[in-house]
């Protein structure tokens, strides 16, 4: 079967690319349905973009690479598409846009865009024996036990990263890159909870509070959540993408810096109360109890000097922790690293060394923050490759 373009992966990036690559396009996926990660994202409502998306919200060895695609297909372009399909949406927090009804509306929209452009979709299809003969790509597809040999001018790798293997993530993109001598930046799980040895935070499981979490000089102010195995919550997930094994993180559980003044005035009005009781008016009581041994929070508040209260506030704003690891790809929302952007054109996503070969979406070494940024990268990179292919 001769086609113009074979796209591997009917996820966010692959479907967006198919909607723009031209009619003679075939999208294949081994999953039962297209856009499964879109369907489950954002608690079923898909945080499909972020109003504040800019290159500063992405992690990559080359921080300039994402600029071109993000500028040419912006969050406003995607919002206009969503509006065109009359999908109602709302801003939840920090510019994060969600569907009012269901993430399935976004999948249906992308399927409709693919149909409009004439792209075909084969699900439950495996891809083997990929090769390039100098001008065309060859691949063997297996669907329903039937084998089809494909010859295509363009091959788009949109098979995502390694996150959540249970949902069909395979790392195929890195394998294909290796086959064509396209370099890959070492991958690691991102937007992932931290784990700590010896059930360290087990007594705190379920406690949530606002905090500032810092890793490698990058800080995020959002909620944190103690879990049976460690630390989670948006601020922790964000910081995890900046953390490397063995490094320390800093947790500031007094991000508004109000603890010292609160304790000082409580000393006037509630002097006979225990220090821990007063602190529990400001912080979750279980956290205060947990820390009371290490921070020696004994005695009444009236017995504490200014210097001592300041010391306590300082300790709580510089809580240094060394995670033993992360929950890994099993729960990571994204994969950091991936196809080395030095090997790709930032305008087309095409491999510089193999004409007609493209890498898009999460497979590429561009990783967004939590908050709709990763889908925006999938839309922008998928659009850039689709445009380039239709013009080829
Ligand atoms: C639980 C969860 C929630 C998320 N929520 C959000 C959110 O709200 N907002 C946001 O911006 N980002 C979110 N993300 C991240 C976002 O889902 C990804 O960044 C995005 O889906 C990447 O798009 P992609 O097209 O590159 O890859 P994917 O969407 O992962 O698509 C890749 C496709 O390739 C297919 N595939 C893989 N290997 C093979 C193979 N060997 N053969 C054939 N097909 C293959 C897969 O089945 C899949 O359909 C979330 C991620 C997770 C895991």
Mean pLDDT across residues: 97
The total strand number stands at 21
Note the main sheet: 7 strands, mixed
Number of helices: 12
Could you tell me the strand content as a percent range? 25-35%
* Estimated radius of gyration: 25 Å
Q: Helix- and strand-based class?
A: alpha+beta
Please outline what is shown here.
This protein has twelve helices and 21 strands.
Give a written overview of the molecule:
The structure is a single chain. This protein is α+β, with helices and mostly antiparallel strands. The protein has helices at 12-18, 36-44, 67-72, 75-84, 104-117, 172-179, 234-240, 259-269, 275-279, 285-292, 306-317, 373-390, and strands at 2-8, 25-28, 47-50, 58-59, 89-91, 96-99, 120-122, 125-132, 137-143, 146-157, 184-190, 194-195, 208-215, 218-226, 230-232, 249-252, 319-321, 325-326, 334-339, 357-359, 367-368. The strands form five sheets. Strands 1, 2, 7, 8, 9, 10 and 20 form a seven-stranded mixed beta sheet that branches. A seven-stranded antiparallel beta sheet has the order 17-16-13-14-15-12-18. A hairpin with a 2-residue loop joins strand 9 and strand 10. Bound molecules: flavin-adenine dinucleotide (FAD). The site of flavin-adenine dinucleotide has 37 residues, from helix 1, helix 2 and helix 12.
């Amino acid at each position: 079967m001769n086609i113009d373009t074979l796209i591997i992966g009917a996820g966010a990036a692959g479907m967006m690319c198919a909607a723009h690559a031209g009619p003679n396009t075939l999208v294949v996926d081994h999953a039962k349905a297209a856009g499964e990660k879109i369907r489950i994202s954002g608690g079923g409502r898909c945080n499909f973009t972020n109003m504040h998306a800019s290159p500063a919200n992405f992690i990559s060895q080359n921080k300039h690479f994402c600029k071109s695609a993000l500028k040419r297909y912006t969050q406003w372009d995607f919002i206009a598409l969503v509006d065109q399909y009359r999908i109602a949406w709302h801003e939840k927090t920090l510019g994060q846009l969600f569907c009012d009804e269901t993430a399935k509306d976004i999948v249906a929209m992308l399927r409709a865009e693919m149909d409009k452009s004439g792209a075909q979709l084969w699900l439950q299809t495996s891809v083997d024996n990929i090769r390039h003969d100098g001008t065309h790509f060859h691949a063997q597809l297996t669907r329903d036990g039937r084998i089809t040999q494909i010859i295509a001018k363009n091959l788009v790798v949109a098979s995502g990263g390694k996150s959540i293997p249970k949902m069909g993530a395979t790392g195929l993109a890195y394998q294909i890159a290796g086959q064509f001598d396209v370099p890959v930046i070492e991958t690691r799980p991102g937007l992932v909870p931290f784990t700590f040895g010896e059930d360290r935070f087990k007594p705190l499981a379920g406690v949530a509070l606002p905090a500032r979490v810092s890793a490698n000089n990058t800080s995020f102010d959002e909620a944190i959540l103690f879990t049976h195995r460690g630390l989670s919550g948006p601020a922790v997930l964000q910081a995890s993408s900046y953390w490397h094994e063995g490094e320390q993180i800093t947790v500031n559980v007094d991000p508004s810096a109000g603890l010292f003044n609160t304790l000082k005035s409580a000393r006037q009005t509630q002097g006979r109360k225990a220090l821990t009781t007063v602190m529990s008016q400001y912080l979750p009581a279980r956290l205060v109890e947990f820390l009371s041994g290490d921070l020696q929070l004994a005695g009444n508040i009236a017995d504490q000097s200014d210097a001592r209260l300041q010391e306590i506030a300082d300790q709580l704003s510089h809580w240094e922790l060394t995670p033993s690891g992360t929950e890994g790809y099993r729960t990571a929302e994204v994969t950091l690293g991936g196809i080395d952007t030095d090997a790709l054109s930032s305008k087309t996503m095409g491999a510089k060394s193999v004409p007609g070969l493209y890498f898009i979406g999460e497979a590429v070494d561009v990783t967004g923050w939590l908050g709709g940024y990763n889908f925006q990268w999938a839309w922008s990179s998928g659009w850039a490759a689709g445009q380039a292919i239709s013009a080829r």
